[in-house]
Amino acid sequence: MNKNFWLLSVGLAALTAPFSIVHAQEAAEQAAVEDNGAVIIVTATRRASPLSDVPIAVSAVSGQAMQNSGASDIRSLNQLAPSLLVSSTGSEANASARVRGIGTVGDNPGLESSVAVFIDGVYRSRTGAGLNELGEIERVEVLRGPQGTLFGRNASAGLINIISKAPEFKLGGKAEVTYGNYDFWRLAGRITGPVTDSLALSLDGVWSKRDGFFDLVDTNGDKVGETNDRDRYFLRGQALFEPNDALSIRLIGDYTNRDESCCGAAYIETRERQPLPGGGYATAPFNRIAAILSGQGSVFPSDPYDRDLTITEGRNYVSKVKDWGLSGEVNYDLDGVKLTSITAYRDYKSQDYGDYDYSGADLLYRDPDTYRQFKTFTQELRAQGSAFNDVLDWLVGGYYANEKLTLEDNIVFGADYGRFAACRLMAGAAVNSNLTAPQLAACGSGLATQALITGTQAQLNAALTPAVGAGQAGAISTGLGNGLRALAAIPSGTGDVGSVYRQKSENWALFTHNIIHITKQLDLTLGLRYTHETKRFSADLNNNNATCAALQASSLPTLATTQALGSAAALAGGILTLGCLGNSSTGLNALNLNDRISDGEFSGTAVLSWKPLDEMLVYGSYSKGYKAGGYNLDRFQLGTTGVNPVPAVFSPRSNADVTSLRFAAEKVDSFEIGLKYTQPKWSVNIAAFRQEFKNFQLNTFNGTSFIVQNINGCESDLSIARTCDNDDVGPGLISQGVELELAASPVRNVRLTGGFTYARAKFANRLVGSADGSVPLDQGSDGRSGLVLLPGQINSQAPELVTTVSAAWTPELGSSGLSALFYIDGRMTSDFNTGSDLFPEKVQDGYAVFNARVGIRGPQQRWAVEFWGQNIFNQDYTQVAFSSPLQSSSPGTSTTGQFALTPPSPMANQLISGYLGEPRTYGITLRGSF
Asked: Which is more confidently placed, 462 or 702?
């Protein structure tokens, strides 16, 4: 709390300094097109209007501001937009964008983002497309709150709109060369000019290559490779045809190629902790999971920010992306009615594979055939004009999208998996380990595995004999011993061998957005949208895990469901869970999974805005947002409904289980009031908001699988089954707060910006997992894991306090036309939890990141030499922390947050890994233009 207070104080001090400014206004919301000194023209409402006349919450960044900050993709917008947070995880294809603390975890491709990304008017299927090189950019707009009546694709939390530079009818070009630490090279260029009086062309491209931020080391600490490097290029060609004043046609083709090693993760928590009677915890002498892994070649560095990783040899991280598309935008002025058509086709394919357990043990990996691919066709049509002597500005439109998603996800057991699983179970999940650290290391390595299984079997027999008799005890202990032996003997390479998921989505919508000028000072804006979405799901699962089928056909399922057997039942359940991990079984091969969902929904907006002064705008708005439902593309959750009396992995799956992969549409009611005030040399925007989300689509990795559940709140107490009546269901997540944006140009050649956001995105105190209240919040089969920590807490990746500042000074140097550049920007963030299950171990303390740039520029900026640095103070921070796959004794003994449950968990030993933020980088850029 002290750090939060410090950040609040520093942020407010920065914003109230003589020349503060809010980022959003910086491109000064060049959300638009021109800056006539004091008047900033924006097009965020599809109409060219002064910023002070636009009653919506929108931030924008100009291409110049992005260049100064060193931004080449949307993640860098974090430095300039306080209400936005973009992060990435196991691959940059898994990027997640959040606005006002709301967004969608990107690891599961079945979920669309709550924050949509558009590039040149074309919807991109997932946020990860925005982490490619962007090329020459005119501006980027960040619209906050639900969107749908202005853009083709609707979004429930916000929208990132990227506009590239169009071809020009004047010959020109530019080129730049950058070199930095980590042997970073970046070449970028653009050329544009006329072919005829009515046709102009442009071509821009980027090539970038860099060494990895992590070293891969062996057990001796010697470097054997690296990861998180960069090797990519981007090309974009455009044609602009303007045969007359009424018609404009813009054609764009682009191609991105990436062949990189990404993304490694470092251990950030490896202790085993035990609760103390008065609160707090003590640290055990060793972590039993880490002890097993150490016998299998894992290394646990004392400082994750040394950036040394040890993974399985031959399982290097690979990330390959091919992303290309074609689009055409036609604008035609038909007697005062502007007609717009945007037609596009895109093909995005990402291959991301390698070590999946992030350790030196060979537990899990994704094979090289793993990929995800989106093939998307979109068509948007709009017509807009005015009527009734300009009393009404109207806009109507239609949108159609056809998206084909193919996911081949091959998760395979490595050579150490079976022994690890058996040793983990024998170590137990009680307060103290059943085995010593040396025994566990020998078990993991294979030196003592069979002997320890034999010893465990004998102990079980002795413990069961007094309760059930010698004969039954012998049969039970023998069955458990044989189960452990089968588990330990699972062959390397067992798992998926070409498991393919397909989701076909067809979406159409009609929308309208109308401004009624009631008086010269008073406007009423009314927008309405109807969206209809159909999704078809199919899966062809192929798996060679015969061990699972044998375990399910044995006595183990009966033992696991006989609770009177106590620890023996728990062991039987553990053998089934790990032997059939995520339903990995030959039984999947006979399934023919097919399903279809269809949904239609109205959404819209109403805004009342008033200009008491020419320089001031006051507005209040209500918006209703919507994001379609879909399918969890993960066999791990097949058959898990949230109300299973017996865990799904205890028995073979059937075709009827396909409906368990569904999740429902996300809906939001948003309320906002705002004030905008503009003077010739400064401006200020203030907005207060409240957003109430129902059926919030939460995607959580629990250390084994991705859980997707619709989160809702209950107004009354939950029943014994943790459910509530349909009439009591309300919003499950509410984001509310205040945004302040300031901008100033106090003197010539000085531009200052800043922003402050207080956003409290909090879950309801009582949560359920369905819109009718009949499905409880996922708390695991033990009722103590899953999402048990969510009620009443702040959402993940949602810092309550964020401040951004930037300052640019470009003084003239004498009278020769030379000028200098001095630039700095910063983002200060309060504490926040980076894991969507809200484990306390995943909290990132508040931190600050600053970028800077200094340089000298020639006359008319024809050339420039710039020295730059990003994260100049080398701030250590974690983008996302996650539960290292399988690396805890049980889901119910994972986190110190479970110590507060009744009864408390006996210990917590989940190993936590983190995708770290980038370290300090610095270099030099040479730039020229004509």
From this structure: 462
Q: What are phi and psi of 158, to 5 degrees?
A: 170, -175
DSSP H/E element including 239: strand 230-241
Query: What is the C-alpha to C-alpha distance for residues 311 and 265, in angstroms, rounded to an integer?
Result: 10
Burial class (CB in 10 A: 0-12, 13-18, 19+), 635: buried
- Asked if the model's pLDDT at residue 85 lies above 70, the reply is yes
CA distance linking residue 205 with residue 192, whole number of Å: 12
Q: Are 780 and 121 in contact (CB under 8 A)?
A: no
CA distance 685 to 127: 27
DSSP-derived letter for residue 664 is: P
Residues 865-881 pLDDT 10s:
999 999 999 999 999 99
User: Rounded mean pLDDT of 534-547?
Assistant: 97
- Maximum separation of any 2 CA atoms in the chain, in Å: 101
Residues 751 and 35: beta-carbon distance below 8 Å: no
**379, β-bridge pairs:** 343, 400
Residues 914, 304 contacting (CB under 8 angstroms):
yes
Which residue has better confidence, 162 or 40? Answer: 162
- Decide: 530 and 509 in contact? Cβ < 8 Å: yes
Q: What is the mean pLDDT of residues 458-466?
A: 94
C-alpha–C-alpha distance, residues 60 and 140, integer Å: 5
Residue 189 near residue 204, CB atoms below 8 Å:
yes
Assign residue 567 a region: left if phi > 0, alpha if psi is -120 to 50, beta otherwise?
alpha
Kindly report the three-state secondary structure assignment for every residue of 785-849.
CCCCCCCCCECCCCCCEEEEEEEEECCEECCCCEEEEEEEEEEEECCEECCCCCCHHHEECCEEE
CA distance 881 to 267: 9
Examine the pLDDT at 580 and tell me if it is beyond 80: yes
pLDDT at position 18, please? 38
Confidence at 243, pLDDT banded by 50, 70, 90: very high
Q: Write out the two tokens for 867.
A: 């020295």
Confidence band of 644 (pLDDT split at 50, 70, 90): confident
CA distance 752 to 22: 8
Rounded CA separation 727/722 (Å): 15
* DSSP code of residue 198: S
Q: Is the dihedral of CA 47, 51, 53, 59 positive or negative?
A: positive
Per-residue tokens: 631 = 């399918």
Least Cα distance to 687 among 670, 712, 704, 662 occurs for: 670
Instruction: Evaluate whether 898 touches 888 at the Cβ level (below 8 Å).
Output: no
Per-residue confidence (pLDDT) for residue 62, from 0 to 100 = 86
Length of the chain: 930
Q: What is the pLDDT of residue 41?
A: 53
3-state secondary structure of 732: coil
Q: 910 pLDDT exceeds 70?
A: yes
For residue 330, the cross-strand partners are 249, 341
Structure tokens at 582: 């995520």
Q: Is 80 left (phi over 0), alpha (psi -120 to 50) or beta?
A: alpha
Nearest to 108 by CA among 637, 476, 814, 588: 637
Which of 704, 584, 591, 595 lies closest to 658, judged by CA?
A: 595
- For the record, the structure tokens of 401 come out as 């999208």
- Residue 722 is encoded by which pair of tokens? 């943790």
Residue 85 CA to residue 62 CA, distance in Å, equals: 18
Taking all residues of the chain, what is their mean pLDDT, rounded to a whole number? 91
Strands 500-517 and 593-613: unpaired
Query: Do residues 26 and 60 lie in contact, with contact meaning Cβ atoms separated by under 8 Å?
Result: yes
pLDDT confidence band for 239 (50 / 70 / 90): very high
Q: Could you give the 3-state DSSP secondary structure of residue 368?
A: coil
